[in-house]
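Late entry, evening session. Most of the bench is empty. Finally got around to the prediction I had been postponing all week. Sequence below, unchanged from the version circulated by S.P.
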Amino acid sequence: MRNIASLAIIVIATAACSTTQQKQVDTSGPATNVAAVNSPSVVPTSRPAAAPTAPAVGTPWKDPNNILSQRSVYFPYDNSSVGTDYQAPLQAQGKFLVQNSNIKVRVEGNCDERGSREYNMALGQRRANEVKKVLAVYGVNDGRAETISFGEDKPSSVGHDEASWAKNRRADIKYPGE
């Protein structure tokens, strides 16, 4: 806190004494050395690393009343196209991730038990990639969402009927710690 106060006093004093126009310095990025431009009397001082931007209260993606809790996209049999009914939840996910640039997600593609292991791994990957593409449309940079396929290995329902299979044909958006 002392460093910030000292830096503020130096910057104010320098600005008051300076007759040259200073360039604006963007300090919104990661912690860097900050020095007033065109002012040789100011010694560069490192500012403390900004605390990660966290959701205001808790984790909104775990709040069942928040649209961010809708993190699963379900698919018809043998299909990897994201349905239009998932656009609003994915848009909300994208907007949240753009506003919280320190958070990365993992999109996990899953399948039901029908089909060969190789086919289900490939289909799960296509499903995860399609969800990632939709997030990219809403502004999420490529490096912020990784994809993985679990094929049929992580079913959410263990039954052997259409209702269970429908629950297993999905892509899940996972936040850190999940």
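Two things to note before I forget:
The chain has four helices and six strands.
The first strand starts at residue 33 and ends at 34.
Will write this up properly tomorrow.
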